[in-house]
Write a structure and sequence with these properties.
CATH architecture of the largest domain: Roll
Number of strands: 17
CATH topology of the largest domain: 2,3-Dihydroxybiphenyl 1,2-Dioxygenase, domain 1
Mean pLDDT: 95
Number of domains: 2
Largest sheet: 9 strands, mixed
Strand content: 35-45%
Shape: globular
CATH class of the largest domain: Alpha Beta
Length: about 250
Protein backbone atom coordinates (compact mmCIF):
# COMPACT_ATOMS: atom_id res chain seq x y z
CA UNK A 1 0.00 0.00 0.00
CA UNK A 2 1.12 3.55 -0.61
CA UNK A 3 -0.24 6.92 0.43
CA UNK A 4 -0.18 10.54 -0.71
CA UNK A 5 3.47 10.91 -1.76
CA UNK A 6 4.41 14.42 -0.57
CA UNK A 7 5.84 17.01 -2.96
CA UNK A 8 7.36 18.97 -0.04
CA UNK A 9 7.70 18.64 3.73
CA UNK A 10 7.63 21.53 6.22
CA UNK A 11 8.75 21.34 9.86
CA UNK A 12 6.34 23.12 12.20
CA UNK A 13 7.15 24.37 15.71
CA UNK A 14 4.00 24.59 17.86
CA UNK A 15 4.61 26.92 20.81
CA UNK A 16 2.77 27.37 24.08
CA UNK A 17 1.74 31.01 24.63
CA UNK A 18 4.36 31.47 27.36
CA UNK A 19 7.12 30.11 25.09
CA UNK A 20 6.20 31.84 21.85
CA UNK A 21 8.06 35.16 21.95
CA UNK A 22 11.36 33.86 23.33
CA UNK A 23 11.31 30.71 21.19
CA UNK A 24 10.69 32.62 17.96
CA UNK A 25 13.63 34.92 18.67
CA UNK A 26 15.83 31.92 19.48
CA UNK A 27 14.99 30.18 16.22
CA UNK A 28 15.48 33.36 14.21
CA UNK A 29 19.00 33.42 15.63
CA UNK A 30 19.49 29.71 14.98
CA UNK A 31 18.38 29.88 11.35
CA UNK A 32 19.41 33.42 10.42
CA UNK A 33 16.03 33.70 8.69
CA UNK A 34 13.53 36.52 8.76
CA UNK A 35 9.97 36.12 9.99
CA UNK A 36 6.87 36.56 7.87
CA UNK A 37 3.89 38.72 8.74
CA UNK A 38 1.63 36.76 11.13
CA UNK A 39 -1.39 35.10 9.53
CA UNK A 40 -4.37 33.02 10.59
CA UNK A 41 -7.59 33.91 12.38
CA UNK A 42 -5.64 35.09 15.43
CA UNK A 43 -2.24 35.83 13.89
CA UNK A 44 -1.04 32.50 15.19
CA UNK A 45 0.99 31.33 12.17
CA UNK A 46 4.28 32.64 10.75
CA UNK A 47 7.09 31.36 8.52
CA UNK A 48 10.85 31.56 8.89
CA UNK A 49 11.93 33.18 5.62
CA UNK A 50 15.21 32.02 4.07
CA UNK A 51 17.09 34.52 1.89
CA UNK A 52 16.65 32.16 -1.06
CA UNK A 53 14.44 29.17 -1.79
CA UNK A 54 11.05 28.20 -0.39
CA UNK A 55 9.96 28.10 3.24
CA UNK A 56 10.43 24.76 5.00
CA UNK A 57 10.17 25.83 8.66
CA UNK A 58 7.13 27.49 10.26
CA UNK A 59 5.80 28.36 13.70
CA UNK A 60 2.39 28.33 15.36
CA UNK A 61 1.34 29.99 18.61
CA UNK A 62 -0.95 27.56 20.42
CA UNK A 63 -3.96 28.70 22.41
CA UNK A 64 -2.91 26.38 25.25
CA UNK A 65 -0.93 23.25 25.95
CA UNK A 66 2.75 22.33 25.85
CA UNK A 67 5.15 23.24 23.05
CA UNK A 68 5.77 20.51 20.48
CA UNK A 69 6.56 19.79 16.82
CA UNK A 70 4.47 18.63 13.87
CA UNK A 71 4.94 18.01 10.15
CA UNK A 72 3.16 19.44 7.12
CA UNK A 73 3.09 17.11 4.12
CA UNK A 74 2.36 19.01 0.90
CA UNK A 75 0.13 17.11 -1.54
CA UNK A 76 -1.47 17.98 -4.90
CA UNK A 77 -5.05 17.34 -3.77
CA UNK A 78 -6.39 17.25 -0.23
CA UNK A 79 -9.41 14.90 -0.32
CA UNK A 80 -7.71 11.86 -1.90
CA UNK A 81 -4.63 12.37 0.28
CA UNK A 82 -6.77 12.32 3.42
CA UNK A 83 -8.55 9.20 2.20
CA UNK A 84 -5.25 7.43 1.59
CA UNK A 85 -3.86 8.47 4.98
CA UNK A 86 -6.93 7.19 6.79
CA UNK A 87 -6.74 3.91 4.87
CA UNK A 88 -3.17 3.53 6.15
CA UNK A 89 -4.22 4.05 9.77
CA UNK A 90 -4.36 7.81 10.35
CA UNK A 91 -7.18 9.49 12.27
CA UNK A 92 -8.62 12.82 11.13
CA UNK A 93 -8.37 15.48 13.85
CA UNK A 94 -9.71 18.53 11.95
CA UNK A 95 -10.32 19.72 8.41
CA UNK A 96 -10.29 23.26 7.03
CA UNK A 97 -8.35 24.36 3.98
CA UNK A 98 -5.89 21.76 5.28
CA UNK A 99 -6.38 18.51 7.19
CA UNK A 100 -4.90 17.71 10.60
CA UNK A 101 -4.44 14.01 11.27
CA UNK A 102 -2.86 11.74 13.85
CA UNK A 103 -0.60 8.79 13.07
CA UNK A 104 -1.39 5.37 14.58
CA UNK A 105 1.03 6.24 17.40
CA UNK A 106 -0.53 9.65 18.05
CA UNK A 107 1.83 12.04 16.23
CA UNK A 108 -0.10 14.94 14.69
CA UNK A 109 0.66 15.98 11.11
CA UNK A 110 -1.09 18.07 8.49
CA UNK A 111 -1.83 17.58 4.82
CA UNK A 112 -1.68 20.86 2.89
CA UNK A 113 -1.86 21.85 -0.77
CA UNK A 114 0.56 24.78 -0.65
CA UNK A 115 3.15 24.39 -3.42
CA UNK A 116 6.87 24.68 -2.71
CA UNK A 117 9.80 23.22 -4.63
CA UNK A 118 12.98 25.33 -4.33
CA UNK A 119 15.48 24.18 -1.73
CA UNK A 120 17.06 27.00 0.32
CA UNK A 121 20.82 27.05 0.81
CA UNK A 122 22.16 26.25 4.30
CA UNK A 123 23.21 29.29 6.33
CA UNK A 124 26.93 30.10 6.48
CA UNK A 125 28.29 31.44 9.77
CA UNK A 126 31.47 33.32 10.83
CA UNK A 127 34.34 30.87 10.56
CA UNK A 128 32.79 29.24 7.50
CA UNK A 129 30.69 26.41 8.93
CA UNK A 130 27.16 25.84 7.63
CA UNK A 131 23.92 24.63 9.18
CA UNK A 132 20.24 24.10 8.45
CA UNK A 133 17.07 22.89 10.17
CA UNK A 134 16.61 19.83 7.98
CA UNK A 135 14.92 17.04 9.92
CA UNK A 136 12.03 16.10 12.18
CA UNK A 137 12.79 13.09 14.35
CA UNK A 138 9.80 11.07 15.54
CA UNK A 139 10.40 9.66 19.01
CA UNK A 140 8.57 6.34 19.08
CA UNK A 141 7.84 4.18 22.15
CA UNK A 142 8.75 0.48 21.75
CA UNK A 143 5.16 -0.79 21.53
CA UNK A 144 4.46 1.59 18.63
CA UNK A 145 7.67 1.04 16.68
CA UNK A 146 6.78 -1.45 13.93
CA UNK A 147 3.40 0.11 13.16
CA UNK A 148 4.78 3.64 13.09
CA UNK A 149 7.69 2.79 10.78
CA UNK A 150 5.30 1.03 8.39
CA UNK A 151 2.83 3.91 8.50
CA UNK A 152 5.34 6.64 7.62
CA UNK A 153 6.98 4.48 4.94
CA UNK A 154 3.63 3.84 3.27
CA UNK A 155 2.32 7.37 3.81
CA UNK A 156 5.28 9.04 2.10
CA UNK A 157 6.16 6.30 -0.38
CA UNK A 158 9.80 6.79 0.63
CA UNK A 159 12.16 3.87 1.13
CA UNK A 160 13.47 3.15 4.63
CA UNK A 161 17.12 2.96 5.66
CA UNK A 162 18.10 1.30 8.92
CA UNK A 163 20.47 3.04 11.32
CA UNK A 164 20.74 0.07 13.66
CA UNK A 165 18.15 -1.03 16.20
CA UNK A 166 17.50 2.55 17.32
CA UNK A 167 16.94 4.51 14.08
CA UNK A 168 15.13 4.23 10.75
CA UNK A 169 15.34 7.10 8.25
CA UNK A 170 13.05 7.70 5.31
CA UNK A 171 15.04 8.32 2.15
CA UNK A 172 13.80 11.68 0.88
CA UNK A 173 13.70 12.45 -2.85
CA UNK A 174 16.24 14.86 -4.39
CA UNK A 175 15.67 18.49 -3.44
CA UNK A 176 13.38 17.79 -0.47
CA UNK A 177 14.11 20.25 2.36
CA UNK A 178 13.08 18.21 5.40
CA UNK A 179 14.01 14.65 6.27
CA UNK A 180 11.98 12.31 8.50
CA UNK A 181 13.80 10.10 11.01
CA UNK A 182 12.25 7.64 13.45
CA UNK A 183 13.97 6.91 16.74
CA UNK A 184 13.03 3.89 18.86
CA UNK A 185 12.83 4.94 22.50
CA UNK A 186 13.44 2.79 25.56
CA UNK A 187 10.82 4.85 27.40
CA UNK A 188 7.27 3.43 27.05
CA UNK A 189 5.70 6.88 26.72
CA UNK A 190 2.01 6.84 25.72
CA UNK A 191 2.35 8.33 22.24
CA UNK A 192 4.80 9.34 19.52
CA UNK A 193 6.38 12.76 19.96
CA UNK A 194 8.90 14.62 17.81
CA UNK A 195 11.79 17.05 17.88
CA UNK A 196 13.76 19.20 15.44
CA UNK A 197 17.26 18.34 14.19
CA UNK A 198 19.83 20.57 12.52
CA UNK A 199 22.59 19.45 10.18
CA UNK A 200 25.96 21.17 10.58
CA UNK A 201 29.43 20.96 9.07
CA UNK A 202 31.00 21.79 12.47
CA UNK A 203 28.93 20.56 15.41
CA UNK A 204 31.18 22.05 18.08
CA UNK A 205 31.11 25.53 16.51
CA UNK A 206 27.38 25.32 15.88
CA UNK A 207 26.75 24.20 19.46
CA UNK A 208 28.75 27.15 20.79
CA UNK A 209 26.70 29.51 18.62
CA UNK A 210 23.48 28.11 20.09
CA UNK A 211 24.83 28.41 23.64
CA UNK A 212 25.56 32.06 22.95
CA UNK A 213 21.91 32.38 21.87
CA UNK A 214 20.88 31.06 25.29
CA UNK A 215 20.54 27.31 24.74
CA UNK A 216 21.74 24.78 27.31
CA UNK A 217 23.62 21.61 26.32
CA UNK A 218 21.80 18.61 27.78
CA UNK A 219 23.96 15.78 26.42
CA UNK A 220 26.68 15.07 23.84
CA UNK A 221 26.70 11.85 21.78
CA UNK A 222 28.90 10.40 19.03
CA UNK A 223 26.90 11.98 16.19
CA UNK A 224 24.60 14.53 17.81
CA UNK A 225 24.25 17.01 20.67
CA UNK A 226 20.99 17.64 22.55
CA UNK A 227 20.15 21.21 23.54
CA UNK A 228 17.36 22.96 25.41
CA UNK A 229 16.52 26.45 24.09
CA UNK A 230 15.50 29.42 26.20
CA UNK A 231 11.87 28.42 25.52
CA UNK A 232 10.22 25.57 23.64
CA UNK A 233 11.12 21.89 23.25
CA UNK A 234 14.65 20.42 23.13
CA UNK A 235 16.33 19.77 19.77
CA UNK A 236 19.52 18.26 18.35
CA UNK A 237 22.52 19.37 16.29
CA UNK A 238 23.91 16.54 14.15
CA UNK A 239 26.99 15.83 12.05
CA UNK A 240 25.01 15.44 8.83
CA UNK A 241 26.14 17.53 5.86
CA UNK A 242 23.49 20.26 5.38
CA UNK A 243 24.40 20.51 1.68
CA UNK A 244 23.15 16.98 0.94
CA UNK A 245 19.78 17.14 -0.80
CA UNK A 246 18.91 13.43 -0.88
CA UNK A 247 18.74 10.62 1.61
Amino acid sequence: MSGPVPTWVTAFLDLAPEDHGRAVEHWRGVTGHGLSTPRGDHGEFASFLPPDGDVHFKVQRLAAGPSKVHLDLHVPELAPAVEDAVRLGATVVATREYAALSSPGGFVFCLVTERSAVLAEPATWPGGHRSSVDQVCLDVPPARWDAEVAFWRDLTGWETRSGGAEFVSLVRPPGMAVRILLQRLDDPQPSVTGHLDLASTDRAAETQRHVELGAEVLSVHDRWTVLRPTAGPPYCITDRDPSRVTG
